[in-house]
Specification:
The complex is a heterodimer of chains A (98) and B (648). With 98 residues, chain A is an alpha+beta fold. Helix content of chain A is 10%, strand content 16%. The chains are: A alpha+beta (98), B alpha/beta (648).
Chain lengths: 98, 648
């Protein structure tokens, strides 16, 4: 396997993926880029590709990118670990989590 | 590939800034009505003004389609006493609502009279306000004829007040629901409002942050004749000239905390609500009120000082902890006299806390090095702390900065932040612009709606007051002649706005925000008192003189965030100055003063106002209910208004 170049970059902001894009369904229409109130995303330089998440730590999880996305399956909202709520199945007692 | 580092890995370079860069280039827009803030209030103001044939420019920091607190959605239309199912009279309900101390009787009256009309107009635009798909047949509160879904919210009471003399909690008998609140499909609202703005020819300027108000001849306190703005994508400088301006921007939610990474910024506010509108109005000379009000947010995280810089436990070995007046605290010194106890005996912390509240111990506390013999100071400072792992560098830094155990006491941060997490505090959502029955501020040409007004309420309040302000601003704009913009004022603002992009190192916006937040956490916390205000104000001024000139921003987005910091810095100062003026504690204001422990004494039952006059802070006051008889005043000011409610 060819060795990939390892760049020296600062630690990435955390959390850094408020959403997960599925390139199979995302058409790169950039509706999410436009509806996001705080410019979490920028359009991908290559047309048709999912946007780039540039300011993930500014996200306030308003969800409008996922709600207004016109391509079903393209955006999955991805709550940061510390914000994932729990529940319990009343019959089995099984604990669930988002 | 979705993250920045994915891109870097694949392409071998970071992405270029995706928008053209036009730093300092100017765009000038001439309009009749300028609306700053395109949330719920702003959209309604723009629509209402445009309906009357005026040229309207709507300026929004993000994109109007989903911006503002009500952008993602809204579940309740909260005060629609004029709806056909309501069992209360709008005027009496408004009166009841305004019984809450320090509320805004003007805005409430407008909301109660007009928000049902507003809701019906929203439906005509395409907003969903009824169960038209019969999804909830059989649900309690559903009216089968109108298909309205009445909410149980405020069903029989408006709010529970902890103190019964603060308002009449039980407005109608418990067995009779008032049917004042309607459930709505609020996620449909914002897109239709933007569409309606466009249909009516409103010129929408998205991604523009308002930065300052322009006044006639550039004079503070003179008529407002426009505003300046920054495009957060391309850095362009916007100059808006207007006959009337409506401020409908947000509050200042983020002053006390800066903890984006760990918390995820999910705290019911976005970072973008940084008080820009309030601050630009203040700088222009407008009068604000209720700025001293405090509140508590729900979610946030934060960091503390490292140990031995005073965080957590400043009772250094052998060094007694004293209060701000030098009085010894009953806290163990971990030294010879108390057998080196690391932890205080049970009840000690509580005793100290009670002492703080009673004024027995004055904050902040200090480690009193000078009170112990020189050799003991050295044993603690030089040997113990100087040789411990990470404290060596701390001691070195303090020494280089001039700290001297022979004469100086080290500040302790124990207790100062209060009982709940300090970063939970917020500006209380009470402070804002003083308005009259036209929703005009104290400056000619400047109107306010929604959260920009003092004591704002909810979504339907923003909608109804925005719609009202638009109407009133039009009347003014029709009468007013040409105005003279001062080029000097524009140049001064341009220099302020673009200073951070002329530097490429120094302090970045996140650090500045964190610094401001820390000052507020320590000195404008649960415990408020004059001596702490003084330290806090000095600390903010130090930030202003030492750190602000070093701010840098690498792109237009970061420049916007930097300017938000400057809004928050000014906002924080206003909070302290307003707090200094209220020399009494107040429960409804969330305002607890140690030096003035009397809670809500009658002589302090008044609005305090704050404004700039010749750049000097001036405090004023207004009596409670300064708006007069709500029904009479409303009717006198709105003789021509045609609404669903015809009066009784």
């Amino acid at each position: 396997m060819a060795k990939e170049e390892v760049f020296a970059i600062p630690n990435v902001p955390t959390p850094n993926q408020p959403v997960l894009f599925d390139p199979e369904f995302c058409t790169g229409c950039n509706v999410c880029v436009e509806v996001c109130p705080i410019d979490v995303y920028i359009p991908h330089p290559e047309e048709g590709k999912p946007p780039i998440i540039l300011h993930p730590e500014e996200c306030w999880y308003c969800g409008t990118c996922a709600v207004d996305c016109p391509c079903p399956g393209a955006i999955k909202f991805n709550w940061p670990l510390q914000a994932r709520g729990y529940w319990k199945n009343k019959n089995t007692g099984e604990i669930g989590q988002i | 590939m979705t993250t920045w580092h994915d891109y870097l890995k694949e392409e071998g370079r970071p992405p270029s800034w995706p928008y053209p860069i036009r730093f300092e280039e100017e765009q000038e827009i001439d309009t009749d009505i300028l609306v700053i803030g395109g949330g719920i209030a702003g959209c309604w103001a723009a629509i209402s003004a445009a309906r009357q044939g005026m040229r309207v420019a709507l300026v929004e920091k993000s994109d109007t389609v989903r911006s503002g607190s009500g952008g993602p959605g809204c579940d309740h239309w909260c005060n629609a006493p004029a709806n056909p199912l309501s069992r209360v009279d709008p005027d009496s309900w408004a009166q009841h609502m305004a019984d809450r101390p320090y509320s805004n009787g003007i805005g409430i009256q407008i909301q109660c009279r007009e928000d049902y009309d507003t809701l019906l107009e929203l439906e005509q635009m395409g907003g969903k306000i009824r169960d038209t798909d019969d999804e909830y047949v059989g649900a309690e509160g559903r009216d089968d004829k109108t298909k309205f879904m009445i909410s149980p919210r405020y069903g029989t009471i408006h709010s529970y007040f902890p103190d019964p003399h603060m308002g009449e909690p039980n407005f109608n008998p418990p067995e009779t629901r008032n049917n004042v609140v309607i459930r709505v499909w609020g996620s449909t609202f914002k897109p239709v409002l933007k569409k309606e703005c466009k249909r009516l020819g409103v010129q929408i300027y998205d991604r523009i942050m308002g930065t300052s108000l322009l006044t006639e001849n550039g004079i503070q306190g003179a008529r407002v004749i426009g505003a300046t703005g920054l495009n957060s994508r391309n850095g362009e400088f916007m100059i808006f000239k207007s006959k009337a301006t409506i401020l409908s921007t947000a509050g200042a939610g983020s002053i006390w905390f800066m903890s984006m990474e760990l918390g995820g910024f999910s705290n019911m506010h976005s970072r973008a609500i940084s008080g820009d509108g309030t601050v630009m109005a203040f700088r222009a000379g407008a009068e604000l009120t209720k700025m001293e009000a405090g509140g508590v947010v729900r979610i946030a995280t934060g960091y503390k000082h490292k140990w031995y810089t005073g965080g957590g436990d400043a009772s250094y070995e052998n060094v007694p902890l004293v209060d701000a007046n030098g009085k010894r605290l009953p806290y163990p010194i971990q030294g010879w006299v108390d057998a080196g106890a690391m932890v205080p005996a049970p009840g000690v912390e509580e005793k100290i806390r009670e002492g703080i509240m009673k004024g027995e111990y004055a904050l902040p506390f200090y480690a009193d090095f000078p009170s112990i013999p020189d050799v003991e100071q050295d044993a603690t400072w030089k040997l113990m702390l100087g040789e411990e792992a990470t404290t060596k560098i701390i001691i070195k830094t303090f020494n280089e900065a001039g700290f001297d155990t022979r004469r100086d006491m080290l500040q302790s941060y124990k207790f100062i932040e209060g009982q709940s997490l300090p970063q939970w505090r917020e500006a209380g959502y009470g402070g804002g612009l003083l308005v009259d029955w036209n929703l005009k501020t104290t400056l000619d040409g400047l109107y306010a709606a929604g959260t920009q007004m003092f004591a704002p309420e909810d979504h339907s309040y923003a909608a109804a007051t925005g719609r009202y302000a638009g109407r009133k601003a039009v009347v003014y704009a029709r009468e007013i002649g040409e105005s003279r913009v001062s080029r000097d004022q524009i140049e001064i603002e341009k220099n302020r706005v673009f200073a951070p992009i002329r530097r490429d190192s120094g302090i970045e916006w996140k650090e500045l925000h964190a610094g401001i937040a820390r000052v507020m956490q320590y000195y404008v916390s649960e415990f408020r008192t004059e001596s702490l205000f003084k330290i806090g104000l000095d600390a903010l001024e130090k930030i202003e003189t030492e750190s602000v000139p070093r701010l840098y921003a690498l792109d237009p987005h970061k420049l916007m965030r930097t300017l938000e910091d400057l809004s928050m810095l000014e906002y924080a100062k206003i909070i302290i100055q307003a707090s200094q003026a209220r020399k009494a504690s107040s429960m409804p204001l969330g305002f607890q003063r140690i030096d003035y422990p009397d809670v809500d004494p009658p002589e302090w039952n008044k609005f305090l106002t704050i404004k700039l006059e010749n750049d000097k802070v001036k405090i004023g006051e207004r009596p409670p209910r300064f708006w007069g008889d709500m029904k009479q005043q409303y009717e006198a000011y709105n003789k021509d208004y045609e609404g669903v409610y015809k009066g009784k």
